[in-house]
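Recall that a protein's primary structure is simply its ordered list of amino acids. Everything else, from secondary elements to tertiary packing, is in principle encoded there. The following example makes that idea concrete.
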Amino acid sequence: MKTQSLNTRILRLTTTAICAVPLLPITATPAVAKTTRIVIESREDAPAQKDGAPEYEILKGRAYGELDPEDPTNAIITDIQFAPRNTDGKVEYSNTFVIAKPKNMAQSSGVIFYDVPNRGNGAVHADPDGNIQLISGWQGDLPTDRGLQTLTVPIARRADGTALTTPVLNRFSLFPKGKNTLPITGSIGLPTSRPAPVSLDTTKAKLFRQSADDQPLNLIPSSDWAFADCEKQAFPGTADPAKICLKGGFDPAYAYTLVYQGKDPKVLGIGFAATRDLVSFLRRDSADDAGHPNPLGKPAQWAVASGTSQSGNYLRSFVNLGFNGDEAGRIVFDAINPNIAARQVPLNLRFGVPGGAAGLFEPGSEGTLWWASYDDQPRGRGVSSLLDRCHANGTCPKVMETFGSAEFWGLRMSPNLVGTDTRADIPLPDNVRRYYFPSVTHGGSPLGGFSTDGEKIGIPGDLCQMPGNPNPSGESLHAAWKAMIAWATEGKAPPPSRYPMLANGDLVQPTARAMGWPAIPGEPTADGKINIMPDYDFGDDLDYNSLSGVLTKQPPAIRQIIPQLVPRVNADGNETVGIPSVQLQVPLGTYTGWNMQQNGYGKGGGCFFIGGFIPFAKTKAERQAKGDPRLSLEERYGDHAGFVQKVKEAVARQQASGWLLPDDARKLIAEAKASTVLK
């Protein structure tokens, strides 16, 4: 997924040899490695958000920390045993952070709300509720000159100084026509180079071409490509370890897979410890080792975290790997919200790719995906749960999981609910709530309002056939956050989970017939649109359930395809189970979590995790002329006033159920009145 407009859409969703940790209780002992120094680099006033709200200031700075590689809470970090150590035998790192806090901390709620940056992107602002907002760098492979939240970590080398080497895989697709040179990048939307090759000799690497994900890889002769830049000089161009050049140029109808021997891995798994130790410091300590005071003025009482997409995957792995307990055995986050996150983040790997997005050969779905214990017999991985380690040391957070339709279709959400055998629902533990936002694209519409045209935001050119899905989920997410904070601070139980279940007949095969999809003339159907879930063999040096270690087999072998299920739809083609938005309760068309790619590599299949929209006809005559089985807008609402009245009724229902905050309720009614629906 290399095109810039799709990258922008993904980035905007931020408003993303192993030593296993023994599953034994960790006694509370003084921390021997921690955040050692806090440096505040700037301080400014924050714009007020609401009359009567506390005055806020924004602090920007850098945190410095050190880790004991022998401590069992750190030993799971891949390659930490090869990282350079200081004179105290510790491994050093640093990361950026931004804090928004009340100027008068007596007006603070005592809650740190940590918003996990997505590919380094994030922002903080004044919070009318008095919460302390925090973001910080956790991804160590990002550029440091673009205003992102970043992490500086060491390179792992053997004791004698020689390089660690392992196969590295990189995929190239969706590039413009006429390209003869492509950068070797690892993160969506960011020009971060992958590890340098051991050698620029192409006979020691492999480049494949592939016409579709289900088609074989065809090897390109080593004489026909080079680690080089051919944009200014003809093939074989100018040698460049960060680029590849192909004689005759790259064909956008194909995907290309590069496998080479990489060297000098960064210890990226330190990112988990960096978050753990910064939040623990802000919660527990009055000053750093140099005597600099806690920038909050006093330690916070609680901490909650939310992460969207890639960042939600990060939170799932954070808990799975045991990092919700600090080195003294104390809980870090009281509650977490992994939002639109279906996988684990491939961070704690040698040459990890935390910026991936469930493409072919990308790790992320291999590990444990479920909150309760489940026996992954189809993949032979035994019984596991994302909460195993935190149960062992008593540091499990309350979990509020939120996601929507696109996560089923594009990001392989199904096993989280029904396992890899799809035989039964996996029950949720008492500390987990799951809320489903039906018929939304990845993250829901960022624009909201009431659209009869769909959206073009996030769709690169004419890549997807249907307009973008305008159905939002933001208002429901706001209500979920409010409930999560009350759950963490007051022990107030949130609403019961609402999501599709196999036992209720909500989940079916991903075909139009099984779903009950209406026959809409001229529009695509859901058949063949789901992102398949391969069972990869990455070699024996990967701890699959923890998604940690070393990928020695590249490209991985595909042992089987794991079955997946999706929600049913009604006669309009819309999903019904979960927390429907006001827009879905008063629909203007069919809102899907899938779309159809209409050109380039992957043509005819799903269009990544971009949902689609098929508007209703305006009049009965118009829909009958088209043969559209769905009622028209006039048949549903009569006129504009009738539509606005239906919105008001849906808003009232949503507020009564606790899933709409007052400010959002007023906004929705105003947007309905201002809309052009039936005007």
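Residues 261 and 529 are 34 Å apart (CA to CA). The chain has 13 helices and 31 strands.
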